[in-house]
Amino acid sequence: MTWDETGEAVTDRLVAASADGEDRAVEAALRPKDLGEFIGQERVREQLDLVLRAARARGGTADHVLLSGAPGLGKTTLSMIIAAEMGAPIRITSGPAIQHAGDLAAILSSLTEGEVLFLDEIHRMSRPAEEMLYMAMEDFRVDVIVGKGPGATAIPLELPPFTLVGATTRAGLLPPPLRDRFGFTGHMEFYAPAELERVIHRSAGLLDVDIEPDGAAEIAGRSRGTPRIANRLLRRVRDYAQVKADGLITKEIAARALDVYEVDLRGLDRLDRAVLDALLRLFGGGPVGLSTLAVAVGEERETVEEVAEPFLVREGLLARTPRGRVATLAAWAHLGLVPPRHNDAGGSQQGLFGP
């Protein structure tokens, strides 16, 4: 696994939830412009609509907003919608890019009244900058330290009212003092297949792609509940349909295209299946340590833990136990294998696999 300039994991997996340069360019064209166009997340949209309408009625800035959830669910899109709904400009940065309090002070001091500051991966911001943010969010003021040692002086700097929109994939890492300063917190849920079908139809229209309802359903079922992945799979299926067919995406064309790209019916790709295959065939379903499992599939430990495992656990195909990783009955069924009653280490798996 490689890393970009902000410290984010970068992979070449078709079902990766993180965005690369191509995804960001396409997302800009496909991104909804207001809450009415935004598909899914009904509860968050309804609550956020009330917050923004009340702020507009008061003629003031909106409360600070915290959005949490897995990558690719629309946190950045919602931040841009917040700015559009409030008729305000937006400034975009990320937690890893703010390593010093001075970095944050420079950004805050250049904000205009009512501007929206979108801070992605806010949980990865440095502690000094985080402490400066407390006062900025609550009092719209920061203290800039001039000098060092006993002669250092704190110069208060007044800030215009602004709205901070923080996004995080790991809300549990945010310290309570920071979480408490957000007036609204919304948790982004994974999408249902029907919602993803609506996303795919909308994107297909914007991309001028002909797609049948069963073709959209086929793509949605393999998109891991994530709009970003759905849009990426749609583009790859579009390529296949243009080269191998007449350009129309049907269920059969979508299935054949995704088979070429090694994305199976549940959205697992080569890495996911390699992890399950090693766990089942080499270690009898586990338990097995993470490092051993990583060596067996020829990947780094971090890649298996952070890239493959979260989806496998969410799908109920793998379990993390104190003794190691263990496959579930669903994993055996997915690969068409028969689970043993006891694992190779001699431990009974009846608790996880049934009698």
TrEMBL record:
It catalyses: ATP + H2O = ADP + phosphate + H(+). GO terms for molecular function: DNA helicase activity; hydrolase activity. CDD domains: AAA. The keyword DNA-binding applies. ATP binds at residues 30-31, 72, 75-77, 138-140, 181, 191, 228. Its EC number is 3.6.4.-. Has 3 domains, the large (RuvB-L) and small ATPase (RuvB-S) domains and the C-terminal head (RuvB-H) domain. The head domain binds DNA, while the ATPase domains jointly bind ATP, ADP or are empty depending on the state of the subunit in the translocation cycle. During a single DNA translocation step the structure of each domain remains the same, but their relative positions change. PANTHER family: HOLLIDAY JUNCTION BRANCH MIGRATION COMPLEX SUBUNIT RUVB, PTHR42848. Gene3D superfamilies: 1.10.8.60, P-loop containing nucleotide triphosphate hydrolases, Winged helix-like DNA-binding domain superfamily/Winged helix DNA-binding domain. It is an enzyme of class 3 (hydrolase). The gene is ruvB. This is Holliday junction branch migration complex subunit RuvB. SUPFAM superfamilies: P-loop containing nucleoside triphosphate hydrolases, Winged helix' DNA-binding domain. The keyword 4Fe-4S does not apply. NCBIfam families: PRK00080.1, ruvB.
